[in-house]
Amino acid sequence: MTARRTLALFVSTLLIGPCVSAENPPGMQEQAKAAVSTIQGKLKVRGLQKPVNVLRDRWGVAHIYAQNQHDLFFAQGFVVAQDRLFQMELWKRSGEGRLAEILGAAALSRDVNARLLRYRGGLAAEYRSYAPDTKEILEAFTDGINAFIADRKRPNGPGLPVEFRIAGFEPENWKPEDCLNRMAAFSMTGNAFRELQHAQLVAAVGTEKAGELLNLDPVVALDPAPNADFSGLSARLLTALVGSDTRIEFSGKALAESNNWTISGKLTESGKPLLANDPHRVVAVPSLRYIVHLVAPGWDVIGAGEPGLPGVALGHNQNIAWGFTIFGLDQQDLYIEELNPSNPLQYRTASGWEMMKMQKETFAVRGEANVVKELKFTSHGPVLWEDGKRALAMRWVGAEPGTAGYLGSLAVDRAHNWREFEAAMKGWKVPSENIVYADREGNIGGHSIGLAPIRKWTGLLPVPGNGGFEWTGFVPVDQLPHSFNPAEGFVATANNRMTPEGYPYKVGFQWYSVYRAKRIKEVLEQAKTAGKKLTLADMQKLQTDVLSIPARELIGLLRHAAGNSADPAVQLLLSWDANVTRESAAAALFELWMQDVSAAVLRKVAPEGAREILDELAPNQVVGYLSHPSSSAFGANPEHARDQLLVDCLKSATERLTKLQGSDAQKWSWGKLHMVRFRHPLDRYEGASFMDLGPVERPGDAETVNSTGYSGKSFEQVEGASYREILDPGDWDKSLAINVPGQSGQPGSAHYSDLLPLWAEGQYFPLVYTREAVEKEATDKLTLEP
């Protein structure tokens, strides 16, 4: 089959669905196995200065031992490419705005947006913003990737990984600047999409009602500019604006939730701190993150990061451990630029009409002629939408130097105490994170960090571009929330609000649900009160905890509404312990009930014009409206109406569950509804379905600590903790981790899906660290020689 024919099949399956062809090559699974990278023995690699030893343990984690920093990062690039090159190539193309070259015209709008958001400042200022040796590290790292590509493409060599053969294109050499792309962390910055949703809501129901319906914390009045025109604005205008972690054949809302906590040795059995972290992102194959151990003079760090970036984003070195959750700073602002009726290339400023800056970009498109697009920029940033009268321009922190996602970790990797950790925080700008800390000396702490614009308005709505709404700098790092050895004995975050009451800066008013953070703190406080000293096993139990506080609260209301009822559905919920386990019939009923209750409450409290815009209320809003029913929403007898709503919704949920799983409630289970599938980007290609994994039944939901969020009408899990770590500064070799479905992205590798069974059962593997422990667990030993 020709490369063009293979590529055409690849693209058509991604964009229009599976295809069937007699030309598809047989034995694709066997080809995948034959194409697996060499991870034993010796390899000659041009570009190394001295030999490097790579020991892979039985869980697929590569422990890289080099004799100098250059070789360490050269080897990291080579080794990660061995396992994840296809994933890395898609990541790079997404950041470069070059997906249309392999996917065709359907990816063009996504490419245009990626180039609009490309960093356009000076590289000198960019590199000065990170650790001083960042450029040298990136050069070595990308040289290592290129060495692997060259090895696979050499005459009589092993050939490219099987994914490239299926897709019908070849990887290109990497440049250090490829690691500086802004799309890698775009999904974790906010809040342009919400600004448009808020504007649409204001246009539909007015400023006061819109503010009442939004889940703002702290509560603040919406502040539209005088005579603001929000007609025609909605989040749909920016549907192609997505980050690099979004599946390449469709765009969608990125979810970015996480949990972390660090606990003082005063509360642990060992007398040393414990630190736990489980960042929640897209669940897919290959895993978003890659675990690696980097050892060389000046380096001994282990943990996880994104495959296309050097270093370790979260983990530990000899002396400190750290982990992060999204802080959720508002790092974007949309400006409504008024266009000149006689020249739509001009926009109004405080000093009159000004010409937009224009930049021609050429886009290669598979199967078609090149497309030339003229990108437009105002003084605020790229123009993302226009209608001839107005344009939307976005100012965001990604235009500032030093805002490539996660590269700030190169400084954290080498911090050895709180003072050095705090110094490293000054260079962490994107994504905004709540970073918790623990060290071998027994200290704990946390710093909510990120580049936070100083603005005089709330940032909740688009603002006029003609003056009066400009950033006046960024919040100093020492004025962002932080603590060191707090009296509580722990720091815990779960994307909840971290700013204190009366905080002077308008850094954000919308956070993820309060319930996960509330549950984590509840468990830790209960242990303190009981005098129970916490262990690694307790950390595992808490990371996989599925008790639902919203369920507990709604069941309390149901007890008031129908506690005397003999209805089996009522009694099923009233006798339930609120744990959303896979096998639970009550959990299945609750999840459907919660959906129906949420929809019913939305109908009560939101005018018709607002319902479609909001789509849904946050669970804490639903519980709040029901706990304190108002006559304006529920009528003259609000408590009675509330009780009737709960009972009616339980009846409708029972009917729905009966249709889905039959009339025998003993056979109902949440896991039969709530599953996860790990989908490979090539899974629609004929014969490549073996790359997909699952389905796997799942416990929990979006509001449990073991967060397994789903959206829309499907109960399929779409986000969650694909990586977990529990770090023990008292004995690093006792630390634990899990990465799903496996360390390797090669479909034929033994480490492609070997960690999935552990993850599915809430289990971990030892994150071995000392050379002695690594040697004991090593199953594959590779020496890279100059």
Using DSSP, what is the number of strands?
28
Radius of gyration computed on alpha carbons: 26 Å
Strand count, sense and barrel status of the largest sheet are:
11 strands, mixed
Name the overall outline. globular
Number of helices: 24
**Overall pLDDT level:** 93
Low-confidence stretches: 1-26, 248-255
First-last Cα distance: 37 Å
Strands ordered across the widest β-sheet = 1-28-2-3-6-7-8-9-17-18-20
Question: What share of residues are in beta strands?
Answer: 15-25%
Query: Which class best fits the helix and strand makeup?
Result: alpha+beta
Percentage of residues assigned to helices: 25-40%
Commentary on this structure:
54% of the residues are buried. The two termini are 37 Å apart. The strands form four sheets. The chain has an eleven-stranded mixed β-sheet with strand order 1-28-2-3-6-7-8-9-17-18-20. Helix 9 (192-205) runs antiparallel to helix 18 (608-614), helix 15 runs parallel beside helix 19 (619-627) and helix 17 crosses helix 19 (619-627). The chain is an alpha+beta fold and 786 residues long.
Provide the descriptors you would attach to this structure in a database record.
single chain; 786 residues; alpha+beta; eleven-stranded mixed β-sheet; 24 helices; 32% helix; 20% strand; disordered N terminus
Layout of SSEs?
Elements: H1 3-16, H2 28-34, E1 41-44, E2 52-57, E3 62-65, H3 69-96, H4 100-103, H5 108-116, H6 123-128, H7 134-153, H8 162-167, H9 192-205, H10 207-213, E4 257-263, E5 274-282, E6 290-296, E7 299-305, E8 314-316, E9 320-326, E10 332-340, E11 343-349, E12 352-355, E13 357-363, E14 371-378, E15 381-386, E16 390-396, H11 409-412, H12 418-425, E17 433-439, E18 444-449, E19 463-464, E20 482-484, E21 490-493, H13 515-530, H14 536-543, H15 549-562, H16 568-574, H17 585-605, H18 608-614, H19 619-627, H20 631-634, H21 638-661, H22 670-673, E22 675-678, E23 693-697, E24 719-721, E25 723-727, E26 736-739, H23 756-760, E27 765-766, H24 771-777, E28 778-785
Helix pairs in contact: 3-7, 9-10, 9-18, 15-19, 15-21, 17-19, 17-21
